[in-house]
Amino acid sequence: MISQRVNHNSHFFKVILESNLRNGDLRVPKSFVKKYWKGMRNPISLRLPNLTEWKVYWMKRGGDVWFLNGWKEFAEYLSLDAAQFLMFQHEGKSQFKVIVFGKSALEVKYPLSIGNDKKVDESDCSLETVVDGKRKKYSSSSQSCKKIKTNIKEEPECYDERKNDEKKASSGFDIDDMSKALLEKVKNTFRSKNHFFLCICQRTYTERDILSIPKDFLEHLRKKGGHGTLSVKERSWDVRIKFSSYKQALLCEGWRTFSQDNNLKFGDVCAFVLDKREGISFQVVIFRLGEHCSTLC
């Protein structure tokens, strides 16, 4: 009787928002996290009524639990739209049954199967570099780059519990530790013939119109202040570069627009590669924490 009562109560509901589809994430209700999330492991398994299962990795952000890597593919598989309604029922351990309701409030018709040829986007499993303006990608050998399987048990978990410093894997990712791990990964992998600096997107950088340039990089700037340009692929953004009396350089007056347009998140890592042309211009390479969290073992 006790187990039946727990199963009956341990579910939560979510209305899909545009931001869930655009950002590729979904927040678990705090009340559910507080009562049922202790001991939850990564990744969780989302099982649909058509018997397919999906691996989704979750992460803690400021006390909240978010579905990240794998959620976007799950949403695309179901062709989810804003205002649809999902019910998640916890079936024990890290298993959830998911029922999807359309805008008509009726349960949707599910795809017949996942298809053995469906793969995770390889861009989620690689590091992109800029060398004299040419982009190269170095693919990761992570298990997350394998084909998505209908039987999730075939894929190993990211963390090895035998390591003392990784015991908190069962309680989820710590965003500070994971962002530092991503920074180290980029340091060891990223190469460019041009001068560049790396930075972790702190909350200040994602919420305000300001980003600090490391002091040891200032010697490479030909101009001391003025207007600059940030570029990602073929698109560019104008910013202002200010120097303070404390020999500190700041990107501002355009940084926030750049951050919002590129959907930067707390914990992401950016590489700013200085162009050799006149003025101050950077090619920016973005390493998204949500896309790499499953590979940071």
TrEMBL record:
What cellular component terms from Gene Ontology apply here?
nucleus
Q: Which InterPro entries match?
A: B3_DNA-bd, DNA-bd_pseudobarrel_sf, Plant_B3_domain
Q: Where in the cell is it found?
A: Nucleus
- The protein's superkingdom reads Eukaryota
Q: Does the keyword Transcription apply?
A: yes
Assigned keywords, A-Z: DNA-binding, Nucleus, Transcription, Transcription regulation
* Major location category of this protein: nucleus
Gene Ontology MF annotations: DNA binding
Give the matching Gene3D superfamilies.
Answer: DNA-binding pseudobarrel domain (2.40.330.10)
Entry protein name? Putative transcription factor B3-Domain family
Q: Which organism is it from?
A: Lupinus albus
